[in-house]
Amino acid sequence: MSAPRPARPAHDRIARVHHGGPTARVHHGGSVPAQGELVGRAAETERIAALLSAARTGRGGALFVTGEPGVGKTRLAAEALAAAAAADMVILRGRASTLGPTVPHRPFVEALLLLARAGLLPEADALGPYAPVLTGLLGAAPETGGPAVPHLVVGEALLRLLAAVGRQRGCLLVLDDLHDADPGTLAVLEYLLDHVGQQPAALLLVAGRSPRAAADLATRARQRGAAGVLELRPLSRSDVHLLVAAELGAAPADVRPELVRRAVDGSAGIPFVVKELVKELVKDFPREPAGLQDTAPHDPTRPPGRVRPASQGGPGSPAAPVPVAVPATVADDVRRRVDALGPVGAELLCTAALFGTRFPLPVLERAAGGDHHEVSAALRAALATCLITPAGPDAHWYAFRYPLAAEALLDGLGPGGRARYARRAARAVAELHPGLPGPWCARAARLHEHAGDTDEALRLYCDAARRALEETEVAHAVDLLTRAHRLLGPGSAPERRATVLELLLDAVARSARFDRLPAPLSAPEPFGAGEHAVPAGRRARLHARLSDIATLMGDPVQAQHHLDTARSLLGDRPEPADRAAVDLAAVHVALGRPAPDRLRTAAGFARDAVDAARRGNLPDVACAALLLLGRLAGARDEATATAHFERARTIALAYRLPVPRVTADVHLAITATGLDARPARLERAREEALRTGLLPLAHEAGFALALERIRRCEFDAAAAGVREGAAEASRLGLGRSLARMRLAEAVGHAHQGRRAEMLGALERLEPLLDAAPGLRSLAYGQARAFCSLLEERHDAAERELAQAVAYDTENPTTADYGRDGIILLLGVLAGRLGRGHRAEAERAGATGTRWNRQFAGLAHAVLLGREGRREEATAAAERALEAAGPHPMARRLGLRLVARPAHEDGWGTPVEWLREAEEYFHGAGLRAAAGAGRALLRGMGASVRQRRTGTERVPPDLRRSGITVREFEVARLVAERISNKDIAGRLHISHRTVEKHVASLLHKTGHPNRGAFATAARDLV
Q1: CA-based angle 86:5:126, to the nearest 5?
Q2: Phi first, then psi: what are they for 205, rounded to 5°?
Q3: Do residues 427 and 367 touch, judged by C-beta distance below 8 A?
Q4: Neighbours of 122 (CB within 10 A)
Q5: What is the arithmetic mean of pLDDT over 748-775?
Q6: What is d(CA 563, CA 586) in angstroms, rounded to the nearest whole number?
Q7: Counting Cβ atoms within 10 Å, is residue 299 exposed (0-12), middle (13-18) or buried (19+)?
Q8: Which of 186, 128, 114, 193 has its CA nearest to residue 157?
Q9: Would you give the distance in Å from CA 989 to the centre of its chain?
């Protein structure tokens, strides 16, 4: 035999395969995984590498590779063969099969034939008396009838063969599909396992984990230490992401998240299914290369466009993707495994597929009507195929291993077979669950849909959707009603059509799932025609709902169009429910229409809706109208707003109306947060709105929360919330919500004195203002004017606040833009508001929002001071500053604004106020405001400390005592009890200068000597 070539270590090959090459790839970044790369099998490849390495040193061993079909067993074995070949080992492989006549020891015969073709069979002398045994294996014909060679003899012959071929280089024997092996092959294999340990051979044995003889052999071998077992698990989400990227030839970061999500959800992490599914999924993504992220820059100023209805969206619609076709290879695999189960097993799984991915075993047993033991046996066989698995701890529920398995079975059923199975299952559900409680109503609806019983399916879908809405499972209700709407046809009963559409539009409006808007609503006859037309009154209600949705989407033209249509359909004597629905829509349209009387007009429609609700005993309408009245009262009358919200909440609780109750809780929390500046309640209310799927409401709470965080100077948290909210509002097509978030972004920059960023945000807001016309006054009052005040541009602030008032006059807003706060204070300071306005200032300082109370209270103090009522002025200022506690920036701005009149009129502590304000503004980087504070201090004859680089290192308490940067440097060394001489040496200053700094420190801090100061200043070290 020839001398062996230098072997390349197998673990190198395995590592390169796993990591993609000699240099490890960083897949979470921008690198591209190689197509066909082995993903997610690092631990397994390491064990195989160790097995091969040991075999090359004469220490044989064996590993069983097991797992469900498609998990990658054969793929891992192929990688092991490649690694062995790279290490110059001799490789042998064979596979069991059930096709054709039985060939005894077929896997071993295939391995011998491979050696023969490669010219690697050893000479007969090397095998001694066992050479004829191998010759007999190679020449044996099926069913020869000759005397059988004992399995032990065959095993010993193969063992000597492995020793001979692997003597110099080691060898690897891979046997695949051993779950199909004949008993003789497994008997020989058991002998090899017991004796391979002293041979230069590695055995890699691939078998499914079904309860067959091969699985039993693997278990016994592991128990006695003759072999290890590699149980391959499904891939994790991150590994599926890598595999998708590898199949696309793209960097993981460039793969669309939606494609990854659908690959994960559809495959359950089975690599075979992932690969086949990706080939189908990329057809949903039109860009080239398919499935990659759109790298075109996003234009944040672009208003959200009209969202395509679900039935118009086509493949790839992000919110309602068209179901991907089951890959033919996956469908064939599923059908092959189901056919192997026999008629009872096939019927069991086909019926199960009607329920979706999860199914109840008792219903299947009742529907089958067969023997319990026969059904149980079929269930065990189905579990062994790994097509289904127990669904949690409940023994009565099972699930398909991956959703495509159920879809493949449904696709394979003809219409007749599907209807037959579905009717049986529907009867079984009705018998086992009378009244269809809980989720059984939706399950029964789906079964009747499969059975072709459209009317019953529509009725049950509507009932299930109502229950979902009552339980605030809004997203689930949307899904149910979308299925119901697809069942509507030209001949559907008008009342049923109207019910489906009303429920669907309500659910869409509550959840902002505008992608689920039915496409036929844009047709000339969207609600049927002729004898199948929806009655006029109910059509009016449908158009009213469409008007509300258009308002949410920021389309006032469409909102007005649908409202006009609804009014034209009401007739002379409308039903209370019809009239109330139109009145409610009119409120939203009025609020979205720029006009001086818009709030008054909207309030009138809301009161009309309350009256109609009372006449028609419509508690849900009453709640909606009261909530609108509360919002219309808004910041102008918190007490009235709270009363309306509380009344709506009471009705909602009495009639068990969860959506109005959650809505009332959110608005009560917004009002309460304005009054006490404590956002915890608002955060909880927003979380509940999110949890129940009421996304427009959650965005409204998010806007109020962002403003409160800005006022509290929690700028990072506010900015994060604004970014998240703006991105989601843009994705959902919520035009009004996006406009609010753009405003919040501008306010956040303004309160930090960042003019350029504020103007950028206002520029992005401008195209959206038609969707929320009341925001113009807020943009001037809360953003522009506040920024100007921090820049000491008071004249500009006055003009901007005047513009805010003008906008509010032209187009009144329910929100606070500063009318009862900062505008009142600046008017008093400028002398425009005098004694006659003291009562107004006192009222606003005592009863308004906490944000306004601080400014109004200071205005009241200034007026009292002008009247010579110094003690009262000081007390009023103290109350105002207490109200300002949660709002640090506004507190210091107020102190800076009233310090001069306080000093001139002799009330309060203006010097202390200015020092506090100057210290804060300096730390915040607001140079103009800090400089103004220092100038006022000088004008009052107060000492003003120098501002040098490094001031921020001086603790605030010492800065307020007037400690300079140099004095702080000396103070730290004094605290270490270092002598003046050594301090002078360290700081490169004279001994005399150190003495002056120490004396100043003691004077400013009030300590009698340096020892006392050093003791008190230990924390400085």
Answers
A1: 100
A2: -115, 115
A3: yes
A4: 17
A5: 92
A6: 7
A7: exposed
A8: 128
A9: 60
Does residue 841 carry a pLDDT above 90?
no
**Cis amide leading into 318 (omega within 30):** no
The label of the residue with tokens 């601080």 reads 854
Those residues with Cβ within 8 angstroms of residue 393's Cβ, 6 or more apart along the chain or in another chain? none
CA 760 to chain CA centroid, Å, is 28
Nearest to 261 by CA among 286, 291, 233: 291
Spatial contact of 544 and 566, defined as CB atoms under 8 Å apart: yes
DSSP 282-300: GGG--SSSTTBPP-SPP-T
Distance CA 961, CA 1003 (A): 10
CA angle, residues 587, 588, 590, in degrees to nearest 5: 65
Distance CA 856, CA 829 (A): 12
Q: Give me the percent of the chain exceeding a pLDDT of 90.
A: 57
Cα–Cα nearest to 969, from 995, 997, 996, 1009: 997
The distance from CA 805 to its chain's CA centroid, rounded to whole angstroms, is 40
The pTM is what?
A: 0.72
Q: How far apart are CA 653 and CA 643, in angstroms?
A: 15
Tokens of 780: 């001037």
CA distance 956 to 629: 48
CA distance 188 to 302: 73
Amino acid identity for residue 457 in this structure: A
Point out which residues pair with 176 in neighbouring strands: 95
Helix (H) / strand (E) element for 237: namely helix 237-248
Residue 369's identity, in one-letter code, is: G
Q: CA 897, CA 786: separation in Å to the nearest integer? A: 13
C-alpha span between 827 and 837 (Å, rounded) = 10
pLDDT in tens, 129-150: 888 888 888 874 444 445 678 8
Summarised one tens digit per residue, pLDDT across range 425-445 is 999 999 999 999 999 999 999
**Cβ neighbours around 476 below 10 Å, total:** 20
CB 365 within 8 A of CB 398: no
Q: Please, how many CA atoms are within 13 Å of residue 661, restricted to the half-sphere of its CB?
A: 15
pLDDT at 139: 74
pLDDT band at 211 (very low <50, low <70, confident <90, very high): low
| Least confident residue range of 95-109, 143-157, 341-355, 915-929 | 143-157
| Ramachandran class of 925: left when φ > 0, alpha when ψ lies in -120 to 50, beta otherwise | left
The total of other beta-carbon atoms located within 10 Å of residue 208's CB is 21
Specify whether the CB–CB gap between 207 and 177 falls below 8 A: yes
Taking only the tens place, the pLDDT of each residue in 540-554 is 999 999 999 998 888
* Helix, strand, or coil (residue 769): helix
Q: Positive or negative, the Cα torsion across 37, 39, 41, 43?
A: positive
Angle between helix axes 494-511 and 454-470 (nearest 10 degrees) is 30
| Bridge partners, residue 399, by sequence | 358, 389
Q: What is the CA radius of gyration of the chain?
A: 39
User: Prior bond to 289 cis, omega within 30?
Assistant: yes
**Among 610, 603, 637, 638, which Cα is nearest to 625's?**
610
- Per-residue CA distances from 200 to 85, 164, 166, 175, 463 (Å): 15, 9, 5, 17, 70
Question: What is the DSSP secondary-structure string of 151-169?
Answer: HHHHHHHHHHHHHHHTTTT
Contact status, residue 337 vs residue 412, Cβ threshold 8 Å: no
Distance of alpha carbon 725 from alpha carbon 729, whole angstroms: 6
Predicted confidence (pLDDT) at residue 29 exceeds the cutoff of 80: no
Report which residue type is found at 277.
Answer: L
The answer to whether 848 and 638 have CB atoms below 8 angstroms apart is yes
- Is residue 206 packed enough to be buried (19+ CB in 10 Å), middle (13-18) or exposed (0-12)? buried
Nearest to 891 by CA among 854, 857, 923, 935: 854
Q: Which phi and psi angles does 174 have, rounded to 5°? A: -110, 125
The pLDDT-based confidence of 520 (bands split at 50, 70, 90) is: low
Q: Contact 737/696 with Cβ under 8 angstroms? A: yes
